[in-house]
C-alpha cells in the first residue's frame, strides 16, 4: 500500500496533467497558432501609395512591380512621373523608361511600399 501511495504522490508531483487541463492547454496552443498565422497573412501584402484604386495588393510568390501596379489600378489621367519601392527602410527609384520597355521589373517582397507620383 505504501508503494502505491508513494507512486501516486510521485506522479502527482512530477507534473501529471488532467485530461481537462490538457484540453485547455491544447486549445490555448491552437488559438495562439491561429493568431500567429493571421498576423503573418496580414503582412503578405504590398502597399501602393498614390492615385490608385487598390492601395493594398496581396503578395504572391513571383509578384513583379508591373504586376503590383496593374493590381493597384493606377487612376491618374497621365502616366506616373516617378515610381519608387521602399523595402526595409531603403527607398529605390525605378527607371521609368526601363520599366516601360520591360528592362526593369523587380520582384516585390511582402511589406514593400510602392510610391507612385505624377
Describe, in plain words, how this protein is organized in 3D:
By secondary structure, the protein is α+β, with helices and mostly antiparallel strands. The chain contains 4 helices and 5 strands; from the N terminus they run H-H-E-E-H-E-E-H-E. It has helices at residues 2-13, 19-42, 65-72, 96-100; strands at 45-49, 56-58, 82-87, 90-93, 113-117. The radius of gyration is 27 Å and the shape is elongated.
Question: Which helices and strands occur, and which strands form pairs?
Answer:
Elements: H1 2-13, H2 19-42, E1 45-49, E2 56-58, H3 65-72, E3 82-87, E4 90-93, H4 96-100, E5 113-117
Parallel strand pairs: 1-5
Antiparallel strand pairs: 1-2, 3-4, 3-5
Report low-confidence residues grouped into runs of 5 or more: none
Outline: elongated
Strand content: 15-25%
| Gyration radius, rounded | 27 Å
Indicate the structural class: alpha+beta
Q: Write down the CATH class of the domain at 45-117.
A: Alpha Beta
Distance between the termini: 87 Å
Fraction of residues in H or I helices: 40-55%
Q: What is the CATH topology classification name of the domain at 45-117? A: Outer membrane lipoprotein wza fold like
Biggest β-sheet description: 5 strands, mixed
What spatial order of strands do you see in the largest sheet? 2-1-5-3-4
**Secondary structure: number of strands:** 5
What is the H-and-E element order?
HHEEHEEHE
Amino acid at each position: 500500500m505504501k508503494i502505491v501511495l508513494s507512486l501516486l504522490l510521485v506522479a502527482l508531483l512530477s507534473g501529471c496533467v488532467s485530461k481537462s487541463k490538457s484540453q485547455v492547454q491544447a486549445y490555448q496552443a491552437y488559438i495562439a497558432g491561429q493568431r500567429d498565422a493571421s498576423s503573418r497573412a496580414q503582412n503578405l501584402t504590398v502597399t501602393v501609395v498614390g492615385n490608385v484604386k487598390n492601395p493594398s495588393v496581396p503578395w504572391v510568390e513571383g509578384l513583379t512591380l508591373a504586376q503590383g501596379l496593374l493590381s493597384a489600378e493606377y487612376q491618374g489621367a497621365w502616366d506616373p512621373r516617378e515610381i519608387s519601392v521602399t523595402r526595409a527602410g531603403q527607398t529605390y527609384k525605378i527607371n521609368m523608361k526601363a520599366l516601360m520597355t520591360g528592362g526593369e521589373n523587380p520582384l516585390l517582397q511582402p511589406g514593400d511600399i510602392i510610391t507612385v507620383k505624377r
